[in-house]
Structures are given as structure tokens and as C-alpha cells.
């Protein structure tokens, strides 16, 4: 019967028809696979901090599949056998594009919202400094939570992302978040100008500092980032009132320097931190003046052990400079060997320090002596 059809007389037509059938079957198989895949793909749900809000995320595996499927759909448009499946292919082109765009934008919105939420909702300092943006963020916060609630209810990524107006809604929220973030960074720059040490603190740490500015004990953990070699301030708590700073603890070794006067940590954080600097300078100046009088009356090893590191290093350098300047003055007065005497005394001091470091010292004193040796050697 097939022979009677004389198909061999229509070889080219038959080959074209069979090739079309094979290509259409291949396209049908890919489209079926895509449909089966995205019919079941759901968001990964995660609890947002200690709240009942759930955040939405597409897994990395599904995102890779999305990109692969988009390429497959795009390749179909280049096929001459598209006609039969054109409506379906166009549907999946738009649907997958919507998933890609909405998921990307949703991720950015959640990241920005989570970052700004602590400040515009929970920080009294930010609310006070940025009242307009804080008020606007209340509406943004409501919109984001509604979107997340919607996504948590639907779960299916294809259905969620292809809801009418979802991308436009997220785009509007993101633009509003950008405005709040822009105002926030302007606010941070003003704080950095008011207290320049904030320039050397990360944005996350600075935001935490400003958010807790009226709670000095929470600022204490950031002291090493604000002041070199300072671990914490010694704080005396007062019921229902701001604490008082009594002194400072070093994070190099174990040293404590009491302030010459107590300091009440009141006002804005940049204000009382500036006062902390003034108290540090005043305290160390007083300590240095007293130590300069003791260095010539005490045994050197006892003096080194008793004084805090910064004072020891400072006074050691002062006495060396004084000795060198006296040496120059003595040379001018006719004693040409004056600097040689200074050199020998320096060598003797260095030898004493080397002998001292070889003895039984605790970690803090040993580190102090080793630093002295390094400075005197140079």
C-alpha cells in the first residue's frame, strides 16, 4: 500500500514533513517539561527575625532552571517550526520574564526593607531626625508586609509573579525605599561630619550606634571601632537615667585608666563621644605629667610595671628627646662628647630592657617592654 502512494516521488516533501514533526515533537516535549516544572515551584519561606512575617526566596537551583528555560523559549522563536506552538511559547516567554523580573525586584525590596526597618520603625533617633521619611516608611512597611503575606498565601512562584500589577507595585515600593535610603545616607554624612571618627566605622555599625545612641551600654561594644586600643568604658548604671563613665579599659593587655572626673553620658551620641575624647586627653595629660615626675625617682622596672602602656611609651620618648636636646646644648657649650654619653646611656637602657624581658613577666608588662625595646632600637 505504501508503495502505491509512490512516496519516493515526493522525497523532499516527505523529509520536510517528517523533520517538522520531529522538531515539533521536540518543542512539545520541552514546553511540557517547562509547564510541569513551574506548575509546582514554590517560594522558600523564612521567618523574618522574631516576627510572624515570612520572607520569600527562590532557591538557587530554581533560578538556574529559570535562566535555562528562558534560553530554551528564546531559541524557539528562531525556529521555523514555531507556528503551531506560537501562542504557548509567547505565554511562557512572558510568564518566565515576569518571574525573573519580579523575583529579582522582590529580593531587592526585601533586602532594603529589612535594612531600613530597624531604623525607621525602631530607632527613636532616626524618627526624630527624619520625621518625614519615618512617616512615609510606615506606609512602605505596610505595603511590603501585604506583598509578603500575599506571597506566603499563594506560595506558587508562577502564580505570584504573574499577578496583574505585581511588578509595578514592587517597583513603586522600591522607589520609595530608595528615597528613604537616600535621606538616611544624607543623615549619616551629617553625623560623620559632627563626629569624624564615624568615617572609619562601617555603615552597619554606625547605624547600630545611632539607633542605640540613647543607650550608652549598647554603644560600649563599638568602642574598639571608634577608639584605637580601647575595649570598653567603665560605666556606672543609674536607675532610670543615663550611665556615668568612670574610666577606660584597654583591649591590648589588661589595663584600666580611671578618668580624672566622672563623665555623665547625656545628649546625642556624637556629643558625648566627643566629650569622651576630651576626658581621655585630659586624663592622659594629667597621668603623663605625674609620671614624668616619678620616672626619675622610681626604679625603672617598677615604673614600667606601675604605669599604663601609653604613658610609659610617651614618657620614655620624652626623656630620650630631653637627653638628646641636652646633648646638643652641651656640644654647643664645648662638650663634644655629650652625644656619645647619651648613646651609651641609651644602650644601657636597652640592655636593661632586654634583661627585663627575659625575666618572669605577665603578658601585659612583657608586651610593654617589648614595645619599648622596639622603639629604643630604632
Q: How would you describe this structure to a colleague?
A:
- With 378 residues, this protein is mainly alpha-helical.
- The protein has 15 helices and five strands.
- Strands 3-4-5 form a three-stranded antiparallel beta sheet. Strands 1-2 form a two-stranded antiparallel sheet.
Helix content: 55-70%
Alpha carbon gyration radius: 37 Å
State the secondary-structure class: mainly alpha
Cross-sheet strand order for the largest sheet: 3-4-5
Shape: elongated
Number of strands: 5
- Secondary-structure element sequence? HEEHHHHHHHHHEEEHHHHH
The biggest beta sheet, please?
3 strands, antiparallel
Give the overall average pLDDT.
92
Distance between the termini: 107 Å
Number of helices: 15
Low-confidence stretches: none
What multimeric state do the chains show? single chain
Estimate the strand proportion.
5-15%
List its salient traits:
single chain, 378 residues, mainly alpha, three-stranded antiparallel β-sheet, two-stranded antiparallel ribbon, 15 helices, 67% helix, 10% strand
What does this entry show, briefly?
This protein is mainly alpha-helical and 378 residues long. It contains 15 helices and five strands.
How are the secondary structure elements laid out?
Blueprint: H1 11-40, E1 44-47, E2 54-57, H2 60-76, H3 86-120, H4 124-129, H5 131-154, H6 157-161, H7 166-194, H8 203-211, H9 216-219, H10 223-226, E3 230-238, E4 241-250, E5 256-264, H11 269-294, H12 300-306, H13 309-332, H14 338-357, H15 363-377
Helix pairs in contact: 1-2, 2-3, 3-5, 3-7, 5-7, 11-13, 13-14, 13-15, 14-15
Amino acid at each position: 500500500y505504501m508503495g502505491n502512494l509512490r512516496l519516493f516521488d515526493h522525497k523532499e516533501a516527505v523529509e520536510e514533513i517528517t523533520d517538522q514533526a520531529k522538531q515539533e515533537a521536540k518543542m512539545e516535549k520541552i514546553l511540557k517539561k517547562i509547564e510541569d516544572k513551574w506548575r509546582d515551584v514554590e517560594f522558600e519561606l523564612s521567618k523574618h527575625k522574631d516576627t510572624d512575617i515570612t520572607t520569600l526566596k527562590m532557591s538557587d537551583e530554581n533560578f538556574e532552571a529559570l535562566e535555562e528555560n528562558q534560553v530554551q523559549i528564546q531559541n524557539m522563536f528562531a525556529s521555523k517550526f514555531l507556528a503551531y506552538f506560537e501562542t504557548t511559547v509567547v505565554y511562557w516567554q512572558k510568564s518566565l520574564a515576569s518571574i525573573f523580573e519580579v523575583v529579582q525586584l522582590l529580593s531587592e525590596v526585601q533586602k532594603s526593607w529589612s535594612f531600613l526597618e530597624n531604623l525607621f520603625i525602631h530607632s527613636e533617633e532616626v524618627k526624630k531626625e527624619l520625621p518625614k521619611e519615618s512617616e512615609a516608611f510606615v506606609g512602605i512597611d505596610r505595603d511590603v508586609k501585604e506583598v509578603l503575606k500575599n506571597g506566603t498565601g499563594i506560595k506558587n512562584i508562577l502564580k505570584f509573579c504573574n499577578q496583574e500589577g505585581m511588578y509595578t507595585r514592587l517597583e513603586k515600593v522600591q522607589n520609595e525605599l530608595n528615597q528613604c535610603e537616600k535621606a538616611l545616607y544624607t543623615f549619616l554624612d551629617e553625623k560623620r561630619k559632627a563626629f569624624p571618627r564615624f568615617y572609619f566605622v562601617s555603615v552597619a555599625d554606625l547605624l547600630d550606634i545611632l539607633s542605640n545612641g540613647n543607650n550608652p551600654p549598647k554603644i560600649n561594644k563599638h568602642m574598639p571601632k571608634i577608639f584605637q586600643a580601647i575595649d570598653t568604658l567603665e560605666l556606672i548604671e543609674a536607675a532610670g537615667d543615663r550611665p556615668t563613665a568612670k574610666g577606660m579599659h584597654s583591649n591590648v593587655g589588661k589595663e584600666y585608666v580611671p578618668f580624672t572626673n566622672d563623665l555623665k553620658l547625656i545628649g546625642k551620641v556624637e556629643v558625648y563621644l566627643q566629650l569622651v575624647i576630651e576626658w581621655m586627653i585630659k586624663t592622659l595629660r594629667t597621668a603623663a605629667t605625674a609620671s614624668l615626675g616619678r620616672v626619675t625617682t622610681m626604679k625603672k622596672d617598677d615604673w614600667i610595671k606601675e604605669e599604663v602602656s601609653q604613658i610609659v611609651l610617651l614618657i620614655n620618648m620624652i626623656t630620650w628627646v630631653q637627653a638628646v636636646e641636652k646633648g646638643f646644648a652641651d656640644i654647643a657649650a664645648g662638650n663634644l662628647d655629650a652625644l656619645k654619653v647619651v648613646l651609651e646611656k641609651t644602650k644601657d637602657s636597652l640592655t636593661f630592657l632586654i634583661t627585663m624581658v627575659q625575666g618572669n613577666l605577665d603578658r601585659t608588662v612583657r608586651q610593654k617592654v617589648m614595645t619599648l625595646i622596639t622603639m629604643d632600637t630604632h
